Structures are given as structure tokens and as C-alpha cells.
Amino acid sequence: xxxxxxxxxxxxxxxxxxxxxxxxxxxxxxxxxxxxxxxxxxxxxxxxxxxxxxxxxxxxxxxxxxxxxxxxxxxxxxxxxxxxxxxxxxxxxxxxxxxxxxxxxxxxxxxxxxxxxxxxxxxxxxxxxx
Length: 130
Hints:
The structure is a single chain. The chain is an alpha+beta fold. It has two domains: about 1-30; about 35-125, Alpha-Beta Plaits (2-Layer Sandwich). The chain has helices at about 1-30, 45-60, 95-100, 105-115; strands at about 35-45, 65-70, 85-90, 115-125. The protein has a four-stranded antiparallel β-sheet with strand order 2-3-1-4. Helix 2 (about 45-60) packs antiparallel against helix 4 (about 105-115).
């Protein structure tokens, strides 16, 4: 009779270890969704904006960010077209995008953009890779 209890206990322990292993593997396989900083920018002072533009790309790159859209032509399909241009910057995660935006390096140049443009800026969570 004791052998049956020991065997049942051993089987139960094995199942629990297996479940824990499957959960650990699944947690490693879950991909973090990327994030995109999306900006609609209307330039009001090109001279001051140049100070921003000279440094911004290096700061974006230092946070593993990459420009997906940086100006270029837009086509309005519905609603009002943007008054200026569109910028989309891709980051590895929402946390990384916030880290970039809140960083001292970006904080040092942000006033140049804010004083030389009318902007709307958002962070949008992307779709996690499959």
C-alpha cells in the first residue's frame, strides 16, 4: 500500500515539474510587442528645428530606435490631411520608447522641437511578432 502512495506522489511531482517547465518555456517564447512613436509635425521655425534635427537621429539610435517614416509624401484617404509631415520611429517595446522620450539626452533637445513646431506625438503598441 505504501508503495502505491510513493508511486502516486512521484507521478504527481513529475507532472508538477513538467507543468512548471512548460510554463517557463512558454514565458521565454512570448515576444514583447514593438512600439511606435508617431508624430504629426507642423514646422513654425525651421532655423530652431535644425538644432533639434542635428542631434535627434543619434539619440533615437542610442535607444535602438529606427525611423520608419521621416517626412515624405502623404496621401489623405479620409479626414483632414496632416498640416505638416509625419514621423514614425520604431522601438523594441513601449518601455524602450518611454525610456528614449524621458531620457536626459532627448530632454535636452526636446525644447527645440517644442518651440519650433506644432506637434502631436503618440506611442502606439505594435503587434507582437509570431
